[in-house]
TrEMBL record:
Entry's localization field: Cell membrane
Main location: membrane
Domain Integral membrane bound transporter: 452-575
GO cellular component, one term: plasma membrane
Lineage, broadest ranks: Bacteria, Bacillati, Actinomycetota, Actinomycetes, Kitasatosporales
Keywords: Cell membrane, Membrane, Transmembrane, Transmembrane helix
Protein name: Secreted protein
Superkingdom, taxonomy of origin: Bacteria
Transmembrane spans: 140-160, 166-183, 214-234, 486-504, 534-551, 563-583
Membrane topology: Multi-pass membrane protein
Amino acid sequence: MPALRPGRTDGGRSAVSAVSAVAAPGPAAAAASLFAGRVGGFLARRLPHLDQADATRQGVPARLTPVTWLRAFGEVVRSGLTIEETRLEPLLALRTAAGVAIVVGPALWLASPAYAASAALGAYSAGGATFQRTWRPRKVIALGAGAGLALSTFVGYLAAGRLVTFLPLLAVWAFVAGMAWAVGSTAGIVAATTVGSMLVTITLPTSVGRALEHAGVIALGGVVQAVLILLFPIRRWGAHRDALADALAAVADYARRLRHDPTAPFDPEPLMTARDAAAVTPSQARTRPPVLHGPRGLAERIRPVVAALADPDVGAPAEGPGRDRARELLDAAADVLDAAARSIRRGTPAEVPPRSTDVLRVDEDHEVLEGPARQAAERLVELLGEVLEIAGSGGTSGRTPTPPGPADAQFLVRPTMFRLVPVVVRAVRRELRRDSPVFRHAVRLAAVATLGYLIAARLPLGHGYWAPIASVMVMRPDFHRTYARAVARLAGTLAGVALATGMVRALGPDAHVFGALAVVSAGLSYTLIRTGYAYSQCFTAAYVVFLLGMGGQAWEQTVPERVVLTLLGGALAMVAYVVFPAWETPMLAGRLADWLAANGRYAAAVLRSYAEPTREHRADMRRALLASRKARAAWQETYDRARQEPVGPRGLTSREAQDAQEALKGFGRAAMLMESHVPRADSRFVPEAERFAEALEADTAQAAVDVREHRNPDWGRVEEALHAWEGSAAGDRSPVMRRGAELQKQALEDLATAVSRTPLERDVGSAREEQRVRATLAAEGDGR
């Protein structure tokens, strides 16, 4: 995210991570880069209408994705082979690999390699599902994944006798798996593994009874993983602790940056993640550590207070002793929040430097801060005291939250697995429309799975299911991740089969040795699962080669098949996105309009809390804030994906989108500053705020419609209400509210400037840009 100008907010991100070093596979990267260059060049020549030039070099506004298909492939290759900064979790990987070993060993000893392969499939896939980011208990995820794999195995075998029955089942199952992304990424990924299970295991059983046995063995793998999680818990509630600690650390980082930049940006994503993690089922609420129950709300309240203290418009003066005092308080607040974050993450008592506690003492006689700045300082000290009170014990004592009553919920409720069914149905129903990225992904998934199966079945190669499995496992609802995972899977497969082939040749045929190597490969795959798809896939490919070797398959046959069919599956996934894409670029205007409307409702809710400070209005303000954050996150996700798409100019230019984004961030920041000084319930009313709230909500709602339909917004009601406010006593009674209203008006004017263009500007700009695109394409063709 670029640096923000004064008056902006919600931009940066605080990260708490450790860097892991993994060597990139050189030959695999080179092969992937060559593949990307060849295919990208072909598409750039064959699909010029999807290409566009870098218009900024020609002196015209740059569009959102001034990249060609070839340049997009370069970014895809870099992204697919990038080592992600993460914290390795070897103990979790060891426990999950032990689950694979527990089912593979006895199955190989007591039954046959075929049963051992089924057991390995269930245990490996169920174990991999537990590494997905989810706030539900890991044992529930393992059981659910094992059950889904077993069901797909058995149903697939029942229909596997003839293509006329199996292909429709495969298409329907793949479509449903694609629609599972409506629930979330974890559901979508786990559902995709069930499609792979259906494709693999129909080649193993020979009768309905054997199919039931294989399905039971697969389900047993999920049960074993769940039992291991229950018997050997590692960092119970660790992910929830990390989410809450990251939220506190993000606010601490924000406070430090405010010392030097009073309008520093803040990304609310850590707070949104912490809120998602705080939603628990009634059974989880009974066992949740008390320390996870309170600090999130305090972090939410501290953020606007530190912003108001640092802001020169409504807080400490820009220079002088007041500014120095504000810097001291912000630095001490950061120390306290960091100490609380460490306490929650590690489960130890918080340790705050003595100098920080001394700074947080507000002396009524000698305090240099005055007015709203002093109020913010006193409020900050009060909130930090509550943070230390909760984190001081390290979560080892205190009252455990009890299940809520109907009147006042004490925790955010997450539905149980059974009560999740109607939630899933509603989510899927919302996505059943042609313009939905999830629906289009489901259609692509169904088409590619069936087409890949048919093509591979006609090739003179064994294990044809590898092609559709490769397609299913790399496909995602968006362009960039689909292509990056396809490149990563090819690179990882090349490296993995080369590694496994060398070991197979050196060791010779031995089922028990290959079974042990498969378990080791699974453990390494789990260890690297969060460092990048290519590196985890390297050991996944080795794991598959060892499993096939355990079953008696010769490496001379399996290795070429694996490489060729993986290449075929990845190519099918890439082509499918070109044929039936779900580009994010056309959705930008709608996302911007949604964010504008949500911000308007949030700002109006804050003003109504001034007009009539009641508990109901505070609750409305909180709901509006959450809706605004959700709309902002949707815009940011769409904007980031649109910048990576090699499509022609559609709607907003890059400059317009960026300026509009900054304007809306400034608008939200002004509302946040006002929120920090919302009067208490026993305070006097400010009736002038109600009129401005109504005008603001009405104008932003209409402007959202105008932005969506590419019309210029108008702020007539806001200007009239603000003009009527001038000269009244309301501004004197609440200077923060009045100054915030002025900042909001300025932000709305900046938004109108960003998105408004005359018809002549639109026509001339579009014609010039198309001319630049054609000229650049012609120059690139001559260069080749």
